[in-house]
Amino acid sequence: MENKDNKSNKTPKENKPRMFRFNIYWMYGFIILMLIGLYVFSGSSVTKELGWTEFQQLAQDNVFDKWVVSSKKNILEATVKQDKVSEIFKGDVSRLGETPKVIVQIPSADKVSDFYQEIKDENHIDAELSFRVDDDTFWNIFITMVPFVFFIILWIFLMRRMSGGAGNVFNAGKAKARLFDKDNDSKVTFKDVAGLSEAKQEVEEIVSFLKDPNKYTELGGKIPKGALLVGPPGTGKTLLAKAVAGEADVPFFSLSGSDFVEMFVGVGASRVRDLFRQAKEKAPCIVFIDEIDAVGRARGKNLNMNSNDERENTLNQLLTEMDGFGSNSGVIILAATNRADVLDKALLRAGRFDRQIHVELPDLNERKEIFGVHLRPIKIDESVDVEFLARQTPGFSGADIANVCNEAALIAARNGKKFVQKDDFMNAVDRIVGGLEKRSKITTADERNSIANHEAGHATLSWLLEHANPLVKVTIVPRGKALGAAWYLPEERQITTREQLLDEMCATLGGRAAEEIFLKKISTGASNDLERVTKQAYAMVIYFGMSEKLPNLNYYDSSGQDWGFTKPYSEQTAKLIDEEVQRIVSEQYERAKKILQEHAEGHHQLAQVLLKREVIYTEDVELIFGKRAWVSRTEEILEQQEKFAQEEKEKQEALVADTKSVTIVTQPDDSMAAPSQETK
Q1: Measured between alpha carbons, how far is residue 375 from residues 243, 258, 407 in Å?
Q2: Is the peptide bond before 12 cis (omega within 30 degrees of 0)?
Q3: What is the DSSP annotation of 394-406?
Q4: Catalytic: which of 312, 455, 504, 580?
């Protein structure tokens, strides 16, 4: 009964309507009224009404300075002289303004004119008489108020824009997070995330923390406060976050790092506070901050060096909210970035982001799974081989693979096909890697011959060198900005040896070497090849320590915070680095020319096939030079990857089978006997 009474006592109080609620439009109305009041009263004089007889008596004493007669209204306005004000206005005259006036209802304008002329002749007054034709006073006020109204509207518009369209300047400090909960229809789940098995397992565990926290805390453990998804663009970081929003049974706040940045000072920190306030109210929950490098960049590394940076204030507030004196129990921060190297070290420490989940580019088996996901809604025929597509797209991210599938479907639809075929996927890969074909670009016979010899040089060396990437396709049809292009199938390796780097450099220089040997002239077509070779040679000397004169030295700062604008080596060492780079490139160029001279006949045949057909494939090169001696190495690596994936799958299946092998069987008995336990 006591509880019911308490509830009944609270109900009227809770249902009591709100008596007052502030609205910003009240302030706008107050400003408008104030401007109208200033227009009416400021700068205008105090007026006093006089009778016609009284006015005549005062006018004879030369009290008034100026008479203005309104002919339509029969009203006279007379300005009182400063030294005569006290005679008409009694009391304190200091508040009357500069030009106090009197208003007189006159018989007619003619009467005033006659009276003025009479007293001017007799009393020699110096007042001036003027007549005016009255116009619409309301229209005058309207015209006068137009500038004020315009500036008020402009000010309201600017306030709306600066406050993010909220319509209220006080909403500028509110967080712009989008809330997902179990009532939202989020269609992305972990089934839609292919590959990324390790990263997905980490994220699934975070969801499990919130669903069943006692499972982890009963042993004394603590739920992680944050996890940072790090990886190249397009690898699926945001997709993982969407899957978390779809799988978690807890509220999920999603926003971008740039949402904290605003032109107002202090707005970013205010939005951080408001975000965590909302999160605490709905705890347990997950807060996802995409592209956190927009607000989490290392302090002191911004462009406005020593100024009071709003971005740093926002970061300081974020650091405090994530792990400060306040408690954020039940709030897990999930963030994503592809620029982890520029983030502040205080943001990355344990207690804020306890876990860094690396989301890397997918390997062969993961690309198969990703193709399987994106091929679900696409109508394909039996010519499409998922494994072949996975092998033809090395280095592609999940976003790139999704783009390939979409482009293939568009190409098939453009050609009027009912199904998407293998050729459509290959054309889509070519379109994404090399750009759109430009068959309309006009090239002369000499240019085509030069391009064919150049591309044939690349194809020849890549086929004959052991560690060079095997050739897939060569074309002399212009694509994008390139006049010719070659596609290779690189080995998916974790480390690269010195010999592999040198072979790749030699194959890249094959185009320029072929021009010099077979055409006796060089062209600008090798510009991109030379750029890649030069960067690779500098990397060998400066980063990898593969130089003979500068062995085992690395002049690269991976954190990007220690050296600043100064070089970590002397001018003498810089000269030595340039000499070593020049030596490496020259050696590989001479090596390329030597190999091409030894296989000049095969190169000539390849160039002629290119001129005739414009496109050649692996089979064409194999007919000329024979089967590649090192092709088994690539297949061996692929077989090892497939074997490892199969072994992992069998281990998981065996683990599940062992878990289900022990069951409890209950036998019913009329004598209420205890159940027996059997082991299968």
Answers
A1: 19, 34, 12
A2: no
A3: TT--HHHHHHHHH
A4: 455
Q: Strands of 355-358's sheet, edge to edge?
A: 178-180, 252-256, 285-290, 331-337, 226-230, 355-358
Min mean pLDDT across 335-339, 349-353, 627-631, 670-674 is at 670-674
- Strand pairing partners for 48? 102
- What is the tens place of the pLDDT at every residue in 621-680? 888 888 877 654 545 555 665 666 677 667 766 765 665 554 433 334 343 333 333 333
455 is catalytic: yes
Q: How far apart are CA 312 and CA 307, in angstroms?
A: 10
List the structure tokens of 678.
Answer: 């059997």
Task: Look up residue 311 and give its two tokens.
Answer: 């971005």
Looking at residue 471, its amino acid is: L
| Adjacent-strand bridge partners of 227 | 334, 355
What pTM value is reported for the model?
A: 0.62
Q: Are 568 and 555 in contact (CB under 8 A)?
A: yes
Question: Do the beta carbons of residue 73 and residue 134 sit within 8 Å?
Answer: yes
What are the tens digits of pLDDT across the range 63-81?
888 888 876 677 888 888 8
Q: Provide the CB-side half-sphere exposure for 116 (13 A, CA).
A: 21
Rounded mean pLDDT, 562-571: 70
- On whether the CB atoms of residues 437 and 598 are closer than 8 A, the answer is no
* Amino acid identity at 85: V
Tell me the per-residue pLDDT of 209-230, one tens digit each, with 9 for 90 and over: 877 778 877 888 777 888 899 9
